[in-house]
Every structure is written in structure tokens, then in C-alpha cells.
Amino acid sequence: MAFFSDLGEHVAVLRGLLGADIAADALPGIMAALDDDAIVEIISGASNLIRAAEKVRIVASGVAAARSTREHGHGGLAQKRGHNSLAALIQDLTGATRADAVKHVRLGESLLAGMGAALDDGAGESTDAAPAGSLDAEVAAEPWHAPLGRALLAGTISSAQHDVILRGLGEPPTVDDPDASRHIADVWSLAAEQLAAEAGERTVEELAKAARTVRDRLDPEGAGRRFDERFERRSFRLGTDSDGIRRASIAFDDVGGAWMDAILDSALRPRRGGPRFIDPAEKERAEQLVADPRTNEQLAYDLVLDVLRAGALAEEKTVFGTRQAGIRVLITADDREAHADGRPAIGLLEESQTSVPASLAAQHACDTGGVECTIDRDGNPLRLGREHRLYTAKQRLTLALRDGGCRWRGCDRPPSYCEAHHIDHFVADHGRTDVDRGILLCRYHHMQLHHGGWRITRDGLGDFVLHPPPGRGDPLTLAPRLTLRYAWAGIDPPPRRFLPAA
Length: 502
Ligand SMILES: [Zn+2]
Ligand SMILES: [Zn+2]
Description:
This protein is mainly alpha-helical. The chain has four domains: 3-120 and 141-222, no CATH class; 223-235 and 250-326, no CATH class; 329-388, no CATH class; 393-488, no CATH class. The chain contains 21 helices and twelve strands. Strands 3-4-5 form a three-stranded antiparallel sheet, with helices on both faces. β11 (464-467) and β12 form a beta hairpin. The longest helix has 31 residues, at 36-66. The N and C termini lie far apart (110 Å). The relative contact order is 0.05. Residues 117-139 and 316-323 have low confidence and may be disordered. One zinc ion binds at residues 363, 366, 421-422, 446, 450.
């Protein structure tokens, strides 16, 4: 349908419901008298109008962006109007937030690039137009996000949906080989098209999450890199504000964040509309929590402090109520095999469905064991395998006795901070859940091992040997704690001064 008749139709719907040429200040009175159906129709009609107008504004923003680039200097469209960037001009014109203005520019640029529009510099306003013929067929090829622009113009996705798909999929990885590069762009384009097709029945949040997951699946290597970057940025800072209140600022890595979510969730679930409890004791506990006069923030604070105080020795039930906090990682057999072969692969955190490197799934399986489930392509579970490879509490005691803590060279973390690493590869044969094949590593070193491509081997009951990734030095023998060696074996031979006096 032609653009303006489309727009006219949306206006006509509203006019039909509200009456022709009413005064704006009469709107509340008129609508208060309408029935529910009419109100819903008005909301939907007004939204259609907004979407149509927004399209116009986005396209105009894209054109303005091409005329406001850095190369235009003071002669740029935004710059001539006294703004150092187009986003600043748009913010000024619309009264929108900075983030919304930036989003507008981003969408406009994407849309124009996608439409292959001739981005000439505006008749007469500037002289540095691109020389004719500079766009050869290769460069003029449609960018991967073109389907999103088309869907936006066709009205099948909203600008918010366009934006989360665009940002969620992100720029495809760059490669030198032009064939490979074209192939990657095709795959990204297909993903954009499929996500856009889902938009009708998905929330913006769900699309955003799905787009990120699709990207990580298409580019597991990049997923690993992004995971690393977030891990590197982890931080905990404690300070005192001007009122003398101690304040903390924490940046979580993916796993730490998932742990925090799990801990808070398991304790605050009844407050957050979690499942209804059937067990009377649980039900009572849930009711008490709902009636608790503390705010959610205060409850969360008290809980975090309880956990810190109780530390590793806490009885989970006293801290977490009924469900013990923890995280579960999902990984497909294909990804697991790819990971075992050293190829990039990813898994998913069960609760939030964010993707994580396969190495995390391997690390997690070491420590908590796992269960195999056969699932058909539609996600129907067919068969649940048995749980496997979890060191029992007794076995962990034995490991603690033998290792005394993290066995990584130079690390002094005690056993209570350690996870049990299974040195046999995380593959379908499960390896033996045998104390001889396990070794204690602190969380940090366990992650470093799985994620950084390190390996620990052992020949029979010989030494544990740590193999760095290729090119990172020679294998190291991992000695148990020195104090333990003395405790078990004494000093051999005993030095002179320990000999009983003759
Ligand atoms: Zn491990
Ligand atoms: Zn360690």
C-alpha cells in the first residue's frame, strides 16, 4: 500500500473512534466514556501511526547521518546546526534520551546501507560527492542486515525489534577470503531474516536473547572471546560514600552472575511470583517470606551477607530455603565432541539461556557431574540417561587428604575452595569416577585449565603432569602440598638433628 494512504488509514481509524476535529484537551473526557474494545483499538491505531511516522524519521536520520560524518567537518548537516554529532541534533529535535537518539542514527544508517541507497551528499550542500563508478559490484552487494530494513519498511517489525536483532547478531567476523566472507554475510543475512519472521510472536527481550544466542552459535570462537572479555572485566570495589555508608560495585563475569542470580532467586522466589508450593512446610516458609517486612533489596543484602558469613560450610537448607542454589549448563553432544576435538563450541546456561563456551560445560561437568538426555529436533525429551561422573563427598575427602588444596603450581587455595577436576576427557565414555583420576583445582585454575586449553595427565599412580597449551612452555609436574608430603612420609632420610639422641 502506498505510504500516505497507509498513514491516512491509521488516522481514519482514530478519527472514527474519537470524532472529527476534536480539541486535544477534550481527549481524556471522550476516551473515559468509551468501552474497553474502543480503548484497545485506539492504542493499537495510535501505535500504527507512531510506527509509520517513526519509519519516516529513521530513513531521514539515515540520510542525515550520511551527511553528518566526520569527513564533512563543520560543513556537515548536524554540524552546521551547531551539534557535534547527529545524535545530539536528533536529541535536540525530538526530546528523546541520548540512547534513543543513538539508536535512531544506528537504525537509519543500517536501513540506508541495506537499501543500497545512493548516499550522495545532498544537492548543493557539499561538493565531495563520491566519484561515479567507485562502487563496484562487490562493494555494492547488499549488507547482511538488509532483510531487517525491508521488514521495518514493510511494517512487519518495529524499530525496537529491528534494533535488538541488529545488535544481537552483531557484525559478522571478518575473514580475508572473499568467498568465505560472502558466505558468512549470507548466513548472517539468513539469520536476520528468520529472526525478523519470528518477530510477530516474540517479545523484544526474547528476540534480543535469541539473536545473541544465534550469533554465538554461528561464531563460537567469537562467543569464547566475548566470554573472556567479560571475565577480564570482573571486578569488586568497596568504598565509603559521603554519608559514611560502605558501598560496593561489582562487575560479574557470566558464571559469577549466574551464581548470583541463582542464589538470590532460590531465596526470594516466593516474592518474585515463583511456583506455588504444595508441601505445607514449604508453603508456610513462602508465606512468611512474602509477609516479611523487609524490602527485596534488604532481603537480598541480608542473604548475601549470610552466604558470605556461612561460607563453604553452610548447610544449604538454612540459607537457601528449599531449593539449593546452583547453575546448570546445557551442551549438545555435537558441541561436546567439537570441544573435545579442540574446535570452538558453545553451551547454554539453563536458567537464562545465555551461551557460554563449551569449556565451561566441561568444567562444570567435572565438578557436579551431568546427565545425558536424548532429545528430538523439536525438543521433546526421548530418553533420560543416568547421571554420571560426580565425585562423592567421601571421594572429595580423599582428594583433600591427598592434594591439600589446589594443585596448580604456586596456588595456595585450600580444599574447601576447590573443585574436583577429572583428568580424563569430557567425552561420552565418561571416564572412571575414580579418585586416582581426579585432582583438586581452585575455581580460577579449574577454569583456566578448561578454558585456556591446558591439560593434566597421569600415568597410573605416577605424578600428575600439567601440559600448557602448545607453544606455552614445557609440561610441569604438579607436586602435592609439601606439608602433606612430610605428614605422610616423614623426612627421608631423617636429617641428623632429628635423630634420637644416642
Ligand atoms: Zn575439570
Ligand atoms: Zn588454584
